[in-house]
Design a protein that fits this description.
Blueprint (H helix, E strand, L loop, with lengths): L1 H11 L3 H11 L1 H16 L8 H11 L1 H4 L13 H6 L25
Length: 111
Amino acid sequence: MVYGNEALVLEQGLDAEARLRFHQQYSGPPMDQLHSWLEEQLAEAKTEPNSGLGKAISYLLNHWQPLTLFLREKGAPLDNNICTAARGSAQVMPPPGLCRVDGFRSLPACS
């Protein structure tokens, strides 16, 4: 959903301020729901913390602020895939079908 929203932002050619507002309105609520679900999985022992899923949930929760920076800062990228690629890592995109968007029209600069 978030990457689909980003595709709409790019299609519409929104500037950084409009992109931020768009993501706050359309990506923010599902991200809030995801955050609540993640917390619930561990707090209510619905997921074993030492399982693969439990470790993934813990990772997401421990990195929630940087992972959701695009909801608070103008121009913040959705991910750091382009930066990871620039460093020579092959671990840039998930396997096809998992949060993958083809046809990036604009990529953020890396530092």
